[in-house]
Amino acid sequence: MKKYLFLLMAATSTNAFAAPYVGLEYGVTNMSHDYSSTFSQDNVTLNPDDSSSAFGGFVGYRFNDFGLELGYKKFESDDSRSQMLVSDKVGYTKEREWDADLDASQFTFKPVYFYNVNEKLQLKTGLGLTYTQYKFDSSANTEYENDLTDHEYTTDYVPGNSKSESALGVIASVGIEYMVIPNLALGASASYQADSVANSTSFMLSSAYYF
């Protein structure tokens, strides 16, 4: 009887630390990749590799110091050029524009480890897998703008490189969370992700609710 009572108490104690959680995050992501588009007739090359804003969310289930987490993150990068030209139409401003955009939608699955620094502060690390969908588009055009009415129209549209592909990769993350109230945590994290198409570094602010 004492043996069964001990097992029941242990199971009850373990379940007290098991709970689902959800969260939102927002920050900045920098990508490194080989996407580029060259407009040889204009002698212009675009490579969208600047830092950009990123947003996403995650759901997980924590069991004691460990958990499993599913996440989604959306981020993009762009590059553009413009050059004012001598207008061949009276009353219009003429400008040549070049644009390239790289959009990424990323899904993550990773085991995570929690380390409680104290009652309110905890560290959170993770190592897992990613599935990322990339979409790259680029184009060039000439824009005319009426000096009086601001009416705009474009001509000489030239499509550039365009490509869509998906890749499996890996991700590692480390972060910190502070419990502002018993179930709500605010935090910050850094992560590095890599696959056969690109690699990215992200710095995110987050909020999470533990049920």
Q: How would you describe the overall organization of this protein?
A:
InterPro entries: Beta-barrel_OMP, OMP/PagP_B-barrel. Residues 7-193 form the Outer membrane protein beta-barrel domain. The protein is mainly beta and 211 residues long. The protein has one domain: Porin (Beta Barrel), CATH 2.40.160.20. The chain is 7% helix and 74% strand. The chain contains one helix and eleven strands. The chain has one helix at 2-15, and strands at 18-33, 37-39, 44-46, 52-63, 66-85, 92-116, 121-146, 152-159, 163-181, 184-195, 198-210. Strand 2 (37-39) and strand 3 (44-46) form a beta hairpin. The model is unreliable at 1-15 (pLDDT under 50).
Question: How would you summarize what this structure contains?
Answer:
With 211 residues, this protein is mainly beta. It has one helix spanning 2-15, and strands at residues 18-33, 37-39, 44-46, 52-63, 66-85, 92-116, 121-146, 152-159, 163-181, 184-195, 198-210.
Relevant terms:
mainly beta; eight-stranded antiparallel barrel; two-stranded antiparallel sheet; 7% helix; elongated; disordered N terminus
Describe the protein's topology.
Blueprint: H1 2-15, E1 18-33, E2 37-39, E3 44-46, E4 52-63, E5 66-85, E6 92-116, E7 121-146, E8 152-159, E9 163-181, E10 184-195, E11 198-210
Antiparallel strand pairs: 1-4, 1-11, 2-3, 4-5, 5-6, 6-7, 7-8, 7-9, 9-10, 10-11
Oligomer: single chain
Q: Write down the CATH topology.
A: Porin
Order of helices and strands: HEEEEEEEEEEE
User: What is the makeup of the main sheet?
Assistant: 8 strands, antiparallel, barrel
Task: Give the uncertain stretches in residue-range form.
Answer: 1-15
Label the structural class: mainly beta
Shape: elongated
Indicate the mean pLDDT.
Answer: 91
CATH domain class name: Mainly Beta
Total beta-strand segments: 11
InterPro entries: Beta-barrel_OMP, OMP/PagP_B-barrel
Domain Outer membrane protein beta-barrel: 7-193
Signal peptide: 1-18
Keywords: Signal
